Structure to design on (131 residues):
């Protein structure tokens, strides 16, 4: 009887543990809106103003291939965090679309990337991939 009780408790705990696991929220696509890094402006273009200022000037492409998405997210999470208060003069805007329906916005120039509320040093690899 005690063995049956212990097995019942173990089975219940195992079932609860399996149900409690969350699905991994993966990037299912990334939309890249980009203009040339060499584009000059009279003032800095913020992430919020990118859509308005460059409305008909950017090149758009969507990344859906898993290997490219994994490479992109790997490059983003490998960026070196900086806290110098510099806001990028935005030349590239990424929209990361997740399987849950959530969207993250990433804005960058050739020096700084803004991602998830932080500032990061833009890597050459990331700059080249999204341009």
């Amino acid at each position: 009887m005690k063995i049956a009780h212990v097995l019942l408790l173990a089975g219940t705990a195992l079932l609860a543990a399996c149900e409690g696991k969350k699905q991994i929220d993966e990037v299912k696509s990334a939309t890249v809106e980009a203009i040339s890094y060499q584009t000059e402006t009279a003032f800095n273009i913020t992430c919020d103003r990118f859509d308005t200022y460059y409305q008909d000037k950017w090149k758009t492409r969507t990344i859906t291939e898993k290997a490219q998405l994994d490479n992109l997210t790997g490059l983003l999470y490998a960026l070196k965090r900086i806290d110098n208060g510099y806001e990028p003069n935005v030349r590239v805007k990424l929209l990361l679309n997740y399987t849950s329906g959530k969207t993250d916005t990433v804005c960058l120039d050739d020096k700084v990337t803004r991602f998830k509320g932080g500032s990061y040093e833009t890597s050459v690899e990331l700059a080249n991939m999204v341009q």
